[in-house]
User: Fold this.
Amino acid sequence: MECRKVLTQILCVFFLTTGRNEGKLDAKSCSGWPALKLDQACLTFHNQLPTGVDVLYTSDDCYKCLYQPLVSVLNGPQNASVVVSTVLTLTLQLQPMGRNTTLCSWNQLYEEAGHYSVWIQESESPINVICYQTVDVSPRNIYFPLLVAALLLALIALLCVVAPYLYRRRCTTKLIKTIRREGPQHAMDDETQGCGDEVNTAQPKPTRLRSLDTFRGFVFIIGTSVVLAFTSMQKKGVSRRQIIRKLTWRTVVLILIGFCFMNYSPKDGLLSWSWLRIPGVLQRLGFTYFILSLMQTFCGMREIPLSRDRWWDPVQDVVLYWPEWIFIILLETLWLCLTFLLPVPNCPTGYLGAGGIGDNGLYPNCTGGAAGYIDKWLLGDNIYHWPTCKAMYRTTQPFDPEGVLGTINSIVMGFMGMQAGKILIFYRKKDVCVLSRFLVWAILLGISAAILSKCTRDEGFIPVNKNLWSLSYITCMGCFSFLLLGVMYFIMDIKGWWGGQPFIYPGMNSIFVYVGHSLLGSYFPFSWEMRFVDSHWEKLFQSLWATSLWVLIAFLLYRKKFFLKI
Assistant:
């Protein structure tokens, strides 16, 4: 007989703990268990059967994963307590000890700091078992700190909007009263002394797109920036040789920063070959920038041709760049062939799974399929040994999310951003055309992602997988990038309703903030050893505090007009 199922809301957050048995307590309840930490709950199993039972579990986010042992409870009346993760929904299963028969199973997202009891009893029928659950100690509300933080941030944002408005209104009111009392000419002189800074601060409309600076930091916007920047340089008469020298220098610096500083370890010094990782975020960004820049340098149009009522005029921003499209199609064909046709020893061809206990444990050493195999063949052990799938899927093989094969699709993702830049250039001052084309691209990419993934999370022709940078992943992200950039362009550059604050400040110094956080993020005052490890309050405060400090630093650099350019 099945257990009573408890329906809970699925919590989509990162898998912080494995959910496996962190210990066992031969006590009557969780009351004797040590203090629970973040994202943990305590379960006590009360076995009243004449035989012992094994409790197994799996996470609902672990695709086709084997059930893992959680705890064993001897024949009753006996009980045992375990700590489980509250991050993701778990499926638990009870079996007679030493046998592969399911007595009962249930699916639930346990809540933090809750104490639960699971009672295992015989029913009236000798072949059936009843399992039911009770709550001994109510869990805490983990969303309350987030709610308080959201309200405080909303209040701060409201003050930042209202305060300048009230100040301008005060100046206007003061000006009107002075005019009525002392006459127009004298009033204007007096007001110039009192609120002149506010009245005379009118600036010409900036030619720089604020939406791009606010959006900066993603691979997509690299492509957009390349098109705009290189088109501007070409119009200024900068030679191709100078452009190549500049893009090469920037690429080398980005790769060296990622290679040296991102591999920094205070224990072993700047570089140590024993733990050196060759791929990395900045390395991928640098190489992606290099390829996109070469494409724009050799295939970019210097001038937009005048319309001649040709049939392809509505898509001239695509047709005129046909060499780039051929190159990208060939590049994506290479990714598809390597991913789905390359033979990988002891693994199925075209495998895209995590390996480990996933896929019913059939391919434990096939993590990443062809992508992982190519990285290990080219780079050896100098790749990432702690991938995100390691905890959940119990993988033993290293896998680098910034590996060689994924960089191909990073270039394709950047090319989508280049297309956005071409739209901004071709249809300059035609805002409706820009927004409509952004929408069309978003729809096309969204449909492509839906078809490739069959609108599922883990299945489809090509599943959405960030670690692999799969084709469905980049089309999905391209869809949302076009939508978000279009919304920001409308709000910031067309209507001027928002200046991008505070995101525009770190956006205009993105490399400085990224490298600074990577090097100093684990040091005071950005981080400290937390004292209240059983609550989200201090952890949330620490994250918000560190983010605020970097935004403040970026703001001060913005005021000083200091922008780290490579």
Remarks:
- Confidence is low (pLDDT under 50) at residues 1-28, 186-205.
- DSSP finds 16 helices and eight strands in the chain.
- The radius of gyration is 29 Å.
- The CA atoms of residues 23 and 82 lie 6 Å apart.
